[in-house]
Design a protein that fits this description.
By secondary structure, this protein is mostly helical. It has eight helices and two strands, in the order αααβααααβα. A two-stranded antiparallel ribbon has the order 1-2.
């Protein structure tokens, strides 16, 4: 099924807003308008998914900021600009809408174990080289277990999305990484975004599929 143009527009438009809208509240207002126009209606499952992603990654960002592995240049709250509190919900909802696909089955215990180790690494490791080594090993182990075509698509797409967002943010002065990495962005961004994509498919899509099936069942019973 062709991807709607409005979804394809989301990433370049988000990059432009991050780079050129001058204030943090202005960026948030522009992003909210963009998402409202391009996502259109969200059902209850989408809204809960979006909100949970924002809460989880706000906590992860706060832990990573405390470790000093990156910093925002103009923070408003919890060391972050106000728009950042809403970004990860967008990234995950966008990826799900673009790629879609069936929810995977099986090996959930292994996926949860790897995801928890992954989260702990980004929350506790402050050395970029060690972080790359640890998360790279975890991502390699995850891909050895989970390598269906859709797993690779979610992993690869989020790496590309991450590159677009990270380089836009760094080059436009929104955030920065210590140690002057090549191009301004450390290589562990690949393992961060790729891992999020893989665990989005392996852990979150099955939960969303069950939630949507549960929401449909009462309506079908009334027919």
């Amino acid at each position: 099924m062709p991807i709607p143009f409005r979804l394809l527009l989301q990433v370049p438009a988000t990059m432009a807003i991050l780079a050129f809208v001058p204030t943090n509240p202005g960026k948030l207002a522009a992003l909210a308008l963009l998402w409202a126009l391009t996502f259109r209606r969200l059902d209850r499952t989408d809204a809960v998914f979006y909100g949970a992603a924002c809460l989880f990654f706000t906590a992860m960002n706060a832990a990573s900021l405390k470790q000093g592995i990156f910093a925002f240049t103009r923070p408003d709250l919890l060391g972050m600009p106000v728009y950042e509190l809403f970004m990860w919900g967008f990234y995950l909802l966008h990826t799900r809408r673009v790629l879609g696909g069936p929810a995977p089955q099986g090996r959930r215990a292994q996926a949860w174990t790897l995801a928890l180790l992954y989260s702990a690494a980004f929350a506790t490791i402050h050395d970029g080289s060690v972080l790359l080594l640890v998360t790279g090993a975890l991502l390699a182990a995850a891909l050895a277990l989970f390598h269906e075509r859709e797993d690779l698509a979610y992993t690869g797409y989020m790496v590309l999305l991450g590159a677009a967002i990270e380089y836009t943010g760094v080059w436009s002065g929104q955030w920065a990484y210590p140690g002057d990495p090549p191009g301004g962005v450390p290589l562990w961004f690949v393992t961060l975004w790729g891992g999020v994509g893989l665990f989005l498919r392996r852990l979150v899509l099955p939960i969303l599929a069950r939630a949507q099936a549960g929401a449909r069942a009462p309506a079908e019973a009334l027919r």
